[in-house]
Amino acid sequence: MRVVIKIGTSTLAHKTGLLNILRVEELCKIMSDLKNAGNEVILVSSGAIGMGVGKLGLSKKPTDIPTKQAAASVGQCELMYTYDRLFSEYNHTVAQILLTGDDIEHQDRKQNFVNTMQRLLELSAIPIINENDTISTNEIEIGDNDTLGAIVATAVDADLLVILSDIDGLYTADPKKDPNAKLLHTVSDITPEIESMVGGAGSSLGTGGMFTKLKAAKMVTEKGIDMVIANGENPLLLYDIISGKEVGTRFLGKGK
To answer: Which terminus of the chain faces fewer neighbouring Cβ atoms within 10 Å, N or C?
Structure first.
């Protein structure tokens, strides 16, 4: 199975912005094990700006573009150093790819990306992808890695996109406000009723909310790719997700 796993800032870091060491170590161990089992693993990782905030000792996530870019450049180094060190413990090689919207919209550049990804997978590397926040202001202002995960999944013809966040999946209402909200385990069609259930942005360190996840689901399911939203608090859930068990919310690809 070719699986794209998108990990949100809230899964990678504590509320301080500093790395959640135990969780990241477990995630890398499990992803290494999934790869050992014969799966192709592609990681779309948030966290550069959030980790830069912690590394620079800032009291909160910056709102101005230059400071966001500075935090991203510091945090991306920390992020890749951590992934390289942890995956190396299980004899896996990582590769860093930083993308902008132009890279995907320009046909030649998109094809170069696809070719590089295909060769990295043939060489048994684990591509780690993030938005190029250091130079790409549009992505920082309006972009998100849920959408990036969907773009990557469709570009490489993945079998599955997994989005790990601080939520269990799609609920009929906001579970923080409505005690009667119910988790939807399977969504076969994204109807206007489903769209009406989504809310705004998530944690203060991240940029995504359920709206961006639903947008990502629409992108991949149209291409016949399943997508699962699950809580990254328990990385062991990845085993059940890959095996098709009922975890979080699974959006079924068209034609399935």
So the answer is: C
d(CA 50, CA 94): 21
pLDDT tens, residue by residue, 204-243:
333 347 888 999 999 999 999 999 999 999 999 999 999 9
d(CA 252, CA 225): 7
Nearest 10 degrees: CA dihedral of 138, 18, 61, 49?
A: -10
Two tokens, residue 183: 């988790």
Which positions ≥6 away from 141 have C-beta within 8 Å?
Answer: 65
Q: How many CA atoms lie within 13 A of 86 on its CB side?
A: 20
> Within 10 A of 34 (CB to CB), how many other CB atoms are there?
19
